[in-house]
Amino acid sequence: MDWNKPRPTAHTASVLSSRIMRSCTVPRSRLTLAAVGFMLVCLGYWLGSMAPRAGFGGRFSPHLDSAAVWSPDGVAHPKGAAAAVVAGGGGGGGGGGGLQDGVASAEDLSFIPYPRTAPLRTPGEVRFRIGMVADLDQASRSPDDEEWHSFLVRGYLVFHSDTNKYSVEIDPKPAARLTSRYAEKGRGMELSELVAFHGRLLAMDDRTGIIFELVLRNEEDGTGIHVHTPDEEAALREQALKLAHESHFADHLFYLTPAMLKGSGAGSGKSDFSVEVVPRYVLSDGPGDASKGFKAEWATIKDNRLVVGGLGKEWTTGKGVVVHTHPQWIKQIDGTGRIRHLDWKPFYDAMRASTGTSFPGYLIHESAVWSPLHRQWYFLPRRASSEPYDEVQDELRGTNWLLAADERFETITRTEIGRVEPRRGFSSFKFVPYTDDNEIIAIKTEEVAGKLSSYVTIFTIYGEVLLPDTLIALDAKLEGIEFI
Q: Is 147 annotated to bind ligand?
């Protein structure tokens, strides 16, 4: 059922039945019975549409019941949630799709679920598998000077029915190291976004303009993502809760430490999976004729195409002098790999005009998602100012805005999410599956005077905060999140 479509009402049924009676010559008594029957059918449909939604207090859509794997003991069995990920898997993408001879057709798109790992339902929880990538900036260069690296961090988004609240768990095992030999002017693998598209899990490098596919491999046999046995899964959960208590965090919640990125200390040991990093697309800056790579900051799926965007403001010097407008272009990639370069300056400027940040003021964007259900663009600006850009002051210009725009950016609304934390800015977000694009999980990062930290938060598109800013990483910027 499309929850956004208008429902027939009793008034609608009454009007229709009276018109039928006036236009027909059938005996009035028979028409009256037909009209009453029609009104009852409409009333039943209307009441059905208003009924509580499937499970967990009506929070999730009925589609969750058919998509989720039920587990009475709270363990992901080998033929359960984890097994839904195919070998060499990686995402499904809101509007992802399948491949035939490397080309996706519209018919293929319905066969790849999103997310690829089925949600796990237990008597008191719904668990969604999530992945996050890190942007290490200049620290991404490996000591041997021959490769650059990042990390893929995995965990769970958990909804608890007893408290009607969300929490986030980070896998206690070390994050998977992502390596590449591609760089531009000595920098590379500075991953800014993670998105599922056409059955592939893609990560954007904002230095080289390369979009990498992350192919998850079982560390033991190299044949796809590792599927935990019930005993392994139970042990991981027990270890996660132990670390949570040791870190003085609530149950089901703990954060990623530097030691876990380095593979030592709490949660130490060898990662149970590895990731093959495969270049898929190369994006040139601006209109596509520049030698420099595109600084990709956000990505989403619209009408079965991957849309990749940049900062959304003019490229300026450290004191706000305009150099060019290349960051105001976007890239559109279809299932065949064809790339189109589109000038989005009018759309970006429209958002600035609606927020009082027109030039020389600015908005900086690192996260955006298209909602096919609402037919709207949603942006969480990272920085905002009515004053000219200044690279020092910019670190204290975080926002708490959610911008919603129609397809042509003719109508733009702004919703405030919680209170402003000037040091923190949004870096990535996704709609929580099966919430009809009404609930959002987002990452915020803090980067002041070289000190880094990352937070997760959950809220509705109407401004209700469901999980306040919660620390998930120390000394690391997580700049991409996706349901995997």
A: no
